């Protein structure tokens, strides 16, 4: 990894501040002053700033049980951001893996690994997203067939990918989709003439929201969970 990237991942220095401390000779690698940000740092090298060894913050992978009333943005705008619920260093590096509406609750993933995110949200990889929808009216008879063949949502040209629906009760449906168009679940039920009153995401690919994670609580994923999600949809 380049030394300037290492500094970005291990300090709060901006790029221009990094350049300054480098050219001031404040950074050493294995005890030798290095002034060039392009210098390659290898595993095991000790990078220090003014003699203090630096530790790189690795990539983070977090599951949050999103409460209603929070938005999936990096900063607060009309509603508080879900990032307020994560107490972690270098929080500004994190992003949510896709989005849930302000009123939607349940599983949201948060990370600073953009490639991992892309793998999960790209419809190409067909990673399941499972939602529990509380409906205003009983689910109509043709729901399974309409969702399986795909629905052309308002303002779209192409139908949604095939989706499956399970009837939990007349007004409670579990919907599995593999993409994440804007307000997709609400719009799919609206296309059937129904209305979603409450929406909760239970699962993404192989990863279910922990039962014992209260709304607003989060935890780091295990390495196995991170890897399983990176393969999600391929099976
Ligand atoms: N679909 C929706 O309509 N809302 C969400 O929050 C997620 C999926």
Compute the average pLDDT.
Answer: 94
Rg on CA atoms, Å = 22 Å
CATH superfamily of the largest domain: Pseudouridine synthase
Q: Which regions are unreliable across 5 or more consecutive residues at pLDDT < 50?
A: none
Distance between the termini: 32 Å
Largest sheet: 9 strands, mixed
Order of helices and strands: HHEEEEEEEHEHEEHEEEH
* Total beta strand runs: 13
> How many domain modules?
2
CATH level 1 class label of the largest domain: Alpha Beta
- Structural class, from secondary structure content? alpha+beta
Helix count from the secondary structure assignment? 6
The 3D shape can be described as: elongated
Q: What are the distinct ligands in this entry? A: uracil
Helix content: 10-25%
- What fold name goes in the CATH topology slot of the largest domain? Pseudouridine synthase
Strand percent estimate:
15-25%
How does CATH name the architecture of the largest domain?
A: 2-Layer Sandwich
Give an account of the 3D structure.
- With 235 residues, this protein is of the alpha+beta class.
- It folds into 2 domains: 3-53, Roll (Structural Genomics Hypothetical 15.5 Kd Protein In mrcA-pckA Intergenic Region, Chain A), CATH 3.10.290.10; 61-231, Pseudouridine synthase, CATH 3.30.2350.
- It has 6 helices and 13 strands.
- It has helices spanning 3-10, 15-23, 114-121, 143-149, 184-191, 223-231; strands spanning 27-29, 32-33, 47-49, 52-53, 61-66, 95-96, 105-111, 129-135, 164-169, 172-177, 196-204, 207-208, 218-220.
- The strands form 2 sheets. Strands 5, 6, 7, 8, 9, 10, 11, 12 and 13 form a 9-stranded mixed beta sheet that branches. It has a 4-stranded antiparallel beta sheet with strand order 2-1-3-4, with no helix packed on it.
- Strand 9 (164-169) and strand 10 (172-177) form a beta hairpin.
- The radius of gyration is 22 Å and the shape is elongated.
- The structure holds uracil.
- Uracil (URA) binds next to helix 5.
